[in-house]
Structures are given as C-alpha cells and as structure tokens.
Amino acid sequence: MKHLFLLFFILLHIPIKAVESPSKKRARDICKFFTKRPYLKQPSSLKIPYNADSKEKRMSGELEGHQSTIITLAYAAGQLASTSYDKTIRIWDLATQRTTHIVQSNKPSNNIHFFNEHCIMLAKNTKIKVKDLRMKTIVPLLCPPTQSTATNIDTFSCHTNNIAVGYNDRSITCFDIRTSSFIRNFFTGQHDINALTWLSGNKLAAGLSSKLKIWDIISGNSETPLKGRWVNALAVASTTFVSATDDGTISVWNPSNMECSATLEGHTASTGAVAYINDTTLASASDDATLCTWDLATNLKTGVINHEYAVTAVTSVNPLMIASGASDAKIRLWDIHKQQGLDSINITDYIQ
Description:
By secondary structure, the chain is mainly beta. Helix content is 9%, strand content 49%.
C-alpha cells in the first residue's frame, strides 16, 4: 500500500504535455508566416483551417497534402512541384491530382526548378541539389564558395547553362552548371535577397528588401532602376520582365533600357508572386486573398479570382490553366478564361 501511494503521488506531479491538433498547428504556422514578414498585410478573411485529420471529401481541382503555407510552385510535363513551410517538397501528377514524390528537408525551401521533366533542382542548406524522380536519388550539384559565411540558400535562378544562387549572408554567386565553375560574386550589403531571375544579355535581376538591382555578370557593372520598395518576386518573358512589391503594385520593365513601361495597380496588399502565362498575359498572387490576371498589351486587369486565404504562389501550367498556392496549405487549379476552378471531369483536357 505504501508503494501504491508513492506511485500515485509521483503520477500527480508529472506534467502532461498537451497534444497540438493539426488544425491549430497549421493556424500557428500561418501566423508565423506573417509574423516573420512585417511588410505583409494579413488579410482580414484569414481563418483557422479545418482539421487536417477530418474525413471531409477533397474537392476536385484542389491538391491537399501540405500542412503549412505554400511557398512556391513550378510546372513541367504534367507535373507540379510545390514547396511549403512544412519543410517538404511535393511532386504532383496533375492528371490524378495525387502526390508522386515527397522530399523532406530540415528547412523550408524557398525555390524549386525543373531541370528537365525527370529532374528537379532544389536548395538544401547551402547546396544546390538535383533529384532524379525516376531513380529517387539526390545528387549535390553546387556548393557555396569557401569564403562564404552562408548557412542557407534564400533563392536561386537557373537559365540555360548558368545558375545564380542567393545566400542568407546577402551574397549572390553565379556558376556555370556544366562545369560547376565559378563565374562571379555579387554582394547586396544590408539587403536581403528575395528573388533572382536571368535577363537577356548576360544580365541578372535581383529583388531585394528595398530595391531592384540589375548586374551585368560579364563586366560586373550594376544599376538600380527601382528604390525604396521591398521587391518580393520577379518574372521574365521574351520582351519584358516584371517586379512585384510590398505595396501591391507590379512594375513592367523593358530589359533593353531598364525603363519602367507600366505600373499595374489593383491589389490592396503585398504582391508576393507573379508568373507569365504568355508574353502578354500575367498572373499575380497577393496577400489580399486574390489572384489577378493582366493584359500587358493594355496594362489592364482582365480577371480576379478570389480566395479565402492569402495567395502566396502562382505558376502557369499552359495558356488555359494556372495553379495557385495559399496560406491554407492548399493548391488550386484554375481556368483563367472562365475564372473558375477545374473539376476532375475536364482537368485532363487542360494538361494534354
């Protein structure tokens, strides 16, 4: 009896750790997303997501599997790649709307790129790696220069044989992919690197925490066509490129003279992602919970697709279809002309 009383006394004093439900965890991750980005305006429509363990039937045209905010999307050959703050990268087969591959990481990946239809390029810690989706292997491609103090890769951009890697020590290193040889280093001073993209004429554009900066990787010369704005995202087409900023505006640039040809206004919160559908049509994702399409020939807004949550990622699948990612951890597929979601009956018609 004495031993039973002692055991009962010990059990009473053992703290019981509360188990956090999946829905609360996802809500906490969403709050963390905005807390770490004070320049973003959290939409008033943001709600706590439904319980991830519920038996609710999945809606057609919605890809579910991530447990936190979608960071970026990429598409190639019927496959969609997505990264999330849940520290996973997922590859989706759009014909079946199912996950085919999951890559775990110790940190969220801010960028992903299809090297070809069978391989994806991703950043893990301070290394660029290539994952072969057929062999299910990951091969290191590039490492940072020895003098770098970086502990993580913020973003990267790949174009033909060149790749530019932005590190969290605010340095940018350009490599030749074929030989893994070093080309040139750039330093951004006190400015964080949010986005990188290659322009014609061996030029590199960088979206920084308070400016847009352009470098010539051959001469090393630079120019700053935009100052005083936090540049969240960049996208490039054959004759123009665009920059999306924290004030919700999108600037359209002429890469030959670096002049701003138009400023697209319509979002009421930060614009965090942009994607060209074709040379004259643009899609933009914003924290005002909208996905907008634009006609760059007239610089007019052609459509608005409302979401319930902040839209954090967008990519073009083909001239008829786009995919968006949001802070509710879902990916949605849209018909850009009808401005409505796709159902499972006709989705295969869009990706053939």
